[in-house]
Design brief:
Number of helices: 4
Distance between the termini: 42 Å
Strand order of the largest sheet: 1-5
Helix content: 25-40%
Number of strands: 6
Strand content: 15-25%
Structural class: alpha/beta
Largest sheet: 2 strands, parallel
Mean pLDDT: 81
Radius of gyration: 18 Å
Shape: elongated
Order of helices and strands: HEEHEEHEEH
Amino acid sequence: MLRTATTTRRPDGAASWRHWRRSVRALIARAGLILGPYEIVGRMPWWLRRIERGGDVLAPGPPDQPLQYIDCRDLAEWMLRAADDGVGGIFNTVSRPGHATMASLLGAAKAAT
């Protein structure tokens, strides 16, 4: 079972959570939906090409289905900065809940095409 820094018991002798997090050598970013340039899964490019063709578009789930995604550039920048600062631990790297829905994502894709 993966544990986050907020649920893992701090080892005895660690002065603070900040000290404990810096003593962990691994930096693990648990990302949800990763979008952006050079996305190798092809999820967003597929939606953009499909919407560009026009007509009705069948979308998965209800329009108000919440999505938690992160732009690959933001994820890379954060991970590089955290690694450079010596930060370690396990982090959930997604947008805040309610940030976007399937409808808002596809609406933005339609506006972009």
